[in-house]
Specification:
The protein folds into 2 domains: 224 residues, Acetylglutamate kinase-like (Carbamate kinase); 120 residues, VC0802-like, CATH 3.30.2130.10. The chain is 38% helix and 22% strand. The chain is built from 14 helices and 16 strands. The radius of gyration is 23 Å and the shape is globular. It binds adenosine-5'-diphosphate (ADP), aspartic acid and magnesium ion. Keywords: Amino-acid biosynthesis, ATP-binding, Kinase, Nucleotide-binding, Transferase.
């Protein structure tokens, strides 16, 4: 049975990190292996900046575009040089050709809709990283085959948040990837339409890609290799006393991810749960450290409280222009506009004459939404906010976490408490109350 490994940006951030993959994979060569890889380091952010430059003043002829492009190419060339030197195994020509294609796609899509332009260009981060990693594995004697995920993962044309065509994907994946005795290397995050256009599955989507391949091949296990030893009860970079969770259920992990724990993509767990495929989160730096196991066992879910921060939030309050109620037809209208804008409300509150919600600050989607609402309603907004979510809070915990700052909004149910604060009033490092 196949095992699916996923390596994120941090685990292949430079030549040294890529070298580190070889012993890890060698240890697991006794079984069929699919390796799903993200773009190197922060490449996706840099490709987003390149996209902004391509669509900005000066476009692909401008200095900003050229600088971003050259810096990105130089980083990848540096990794190639460090890994392969002048040897014939270096995929330098292939990587240069991919950079040329990226440049051509920017010129071709400058006038296309933003999301389509995004997918035709940002996908190159993964296409390039996997080309380098595949060549490196072969160079080290680990026989591997590179596969183009744009051909394997079939989606609709909903760019930047593509929806999967499960049956077409399963058919292709089974046909092309089952029963290989070589390591299969492919890209996370990206897919393609029937017409052959690239699509992406949403930021951090490589985890979801790993789950897609595992689901289609009835894999035995998915391992996500990270720069942390497992899933913690809060981001260890932001909470000074975060502790690792040993074992949680698919449902609990989905809740944590859905509320914004930026460690697993929220769509990852569903396809694994359906086939009872366990997900292990492990450290690529200390592979022998005890990992976190996510499976169907729910017994441990509420053992510890978990905290999640969602930053760069915007609070939007919508009121009718006349003295009328914010009734269901009006709420329906407002939520419909949210759906159309491709936005998700992270917290909702309503009253007789107001409907309010908190959104991620994504200007290219948010600004048209606000403009549309202003056409028919009074609209107020406040920016630069932080949403704190606590799963399984113990009594008094939320109050301790809120000390010294006013909550603009809050919500609570049996398992989850949320409060919205001004970011400037929040600490850089948080502490989970005992
Ligand atoms: P990659 O993209 O390389 O797979 P990410 O950077 O997306 O990895 O995820 C790892 C990072 O997620 C960690 O460095 C950590 O700071 C952050 N993180 C946020 N929330 C959590 C959490 N609950 N548990 C563990 N790590 C978390
Ligand atoms: N490279 C993509 C991103 O940074 C996908 C991923 O890493 O999962 O969002
Ligand atoms: Mg990630």
């Amino acid at each position: 049975m196949t095992t699916v490994f996923k390596f994120g940006g941090a685990s292949i951030k430079d030549a040294d990190a890529i070298r580190h993959l070889t012993p890890l994979l060698e240890q697991h060569r006794d079984r069929p292996l699919i390796v799903v890889v993200s773009a190197m380091g922060k490449t996706t952010n840099k490709l987003e900046a390149l996209l902004a430059a391509a669509r900005g003043e000066g476009g692909t002829q401008g200095d900003e575009y050229r600088q971003c492009f050259d810096a990105l190419q130089a980083e990848h060339r540096e990794a190639l040089e460090a890994l392969f030197g002048d040897t014939a195994d270096s995929p330098r020509e292939r990587v240069d050709a991919l950079f040329d294609e990226l440049d051509a796609q920017h010129r071709r899509h400058r006038e296309s809709a933003y999301a389509r332009h995004y997918d035709q260009t940002v996908c190159y981060g993964e296409l390039i990283s996997t080309t380098i990693v595949a060549a490196w594995l072969n160079h080290c004697g680990i026989a591997s085959d590179w596969h183009d995920a744009r051909e394997l993962v079939r989606t609709d044309a909903c760019h930047q948040a593509a929806n999967l065509d499960w049956s077409a994907t399963a058919e292709t994946v089974r046909q092309r990837l089952a029963n290989s005795d070589r390591v299969i290397l492919t890209q996370g995050f990206i897919g393609g339409t029937e017409e052959g256009e690239a699509t992406t599955l949403g930021r951090e989507g490589s985890d979801f890609s790993a789950a897609i391949f595992a689901h289609c091949l009835d894999a035995r296990e998915v391992v996500i290799w990270k720069d942390v030893t497992g899933l913690f009860n809060a981001d260890p970079r932001r909470f000074d006393n975060a502790v690792q969770l040993e074992r949680i259920s698919y449902a609990e992990a989905t809740e944590l991810a859905w509320h914004g724990a930026k460690v697993i993509h929220p769509k990852t767990l569903g396809p694994l749960q359906e086939k009872s495929i366990p997900l292990t989160v492990r450290s690529f730096e200390t592979p022998d450290a005890e990992p976190t196991v996510i499976d169907a066992e729910r017994r441990f879910d509420s053992d510890v409280a978990s905290c999640i921060l969602r930053e760069e939030q915007v609070w939007v309050e919508v009121r009718p222009r006349d003295f009328s109620f914010m009734d269901e037809p009006r709420q329906h209208d407002i939520l419909g506009r949210l759906v159309k804008a491709g936005m998700h409300a992270n917290l909702v509150d309503s009253g007789a004459m107001r409907f309010a919600f908190c959104l991620d600050d994504k200007p290219e989607r948010l600004e048209p939404l606000i403009e549309s609402l202003q056409g028919d309603y009074e609209v107020g907004r406040e920016d630069a906010l932080t949403l704190l979510t606590v799963r399984h809070p113990h009594p008094g915990m939320m109050d301790t976490l809120s000390e010294g700052r006013e909550a603009l909004a809050e919500r609570r149910n049996a398992t989850t408490a949320q409060r919205l604060f001004r970011s400037r009033e929040c600490p850089e490092t948080w502490h989970i109350p005992e």
